[in-house]
Amino acid sequence: MPMPWLRMLAASAVSTALIGTSAVTSAAAPDHRAVRDSVHTAGRVKAAGDVLQYSWPGVYFEGRIRGTGVGVVLDDPAADYDVQVDGSTVATLVTPGRTTHWVRGLRDGTHTVRLVKRNDTPWSTSSFGGFVAAPGGAVLARPAARSRQIEFIGDSLTAGYGNLSTSRDCDGEQVKRTTNADVSYGALTARRLHADYQVNAYSGQGMVRNYNGGSPEVNYRTFYDRALLNVPGDVWQNPGTWRPQLVVVHLGTNDFSTPLNPGEPWTDESLAASFRSAYTGFLEKLRKRYGAATTILAAGTGPFAGHVEHAVRQRAGAGDRGVRYWPLDTTGLDLAGCHWHYSARDHRLLADRLTAVVAGLPIRW
Asked: Considering 38, 127, 156, 184, which one is annotated as catalytic?
């Protein structure tokens, strides 16, 4: 089904506001242990002094504290966050800037706290300085990592672009405020499977051609290896703990969702051929990176479905039986998010369908 969506996110300035529990800016410092050692995260992060830096959407940090309050140390002028305590969202932070956001009035005892980056802000670097306990409390040992790991690779549809919007008509600010990767199909599927996950999604990017032919000097593959998307040449260093048993690739919408413009270096035939070649190469790269034990699930739908299926057959012909094709079923989707993107309801439906598909795969969890 042709879907007339996708609009590149504009890197515009954003206002600062805080919604939810009390927020103050203070000089509170993280626990003296390294931030990395006091929180659990599966996201692509880089240590920079006493903070962790990151760019991708959906990056989350989990910790444990004892006491009646917890502070969240952040430096981020661009992204939005949800703060969750004991499984419930207690605050949404909108472009918080440099701050320690406090959640107070908790029952005196042990609490789990989770911070998650809601939207994609590839033009900016985010910094997290850890969780701090209110006076009289303490930061406890971090939660254990989950044994299951899933990596989601995609564009705005995977990032959750505008999925909380009540209208398809959105300006740039509305897109930012209504995008929430934490309720995307990837995050929902991972939580149902009790898995840690990465949402490595970049709005507007294609495998070889970006939305409407924009920024032709780059594409999704330009950025895939990075931790910090706005730093050319940056390469994420896997600490050795990220070994996903499943990788889900959902790329191709931007390559084919708009007609070719005059001046683009493609014909319809050469674009299709370049896409198939690049997609096959990307699957090969994932195989070399993660090894034979990882299952790779390649999603295809609409005008690029046949090209993805072709790439999967190419890999199978080369002896890679761990690459599977997922004919993504869009039946019943309302596309009511910003600019005809998946709505929150659509993401739940897709999570249902993906969970069922994964149940039938020979994954060695």
From this structure: 156
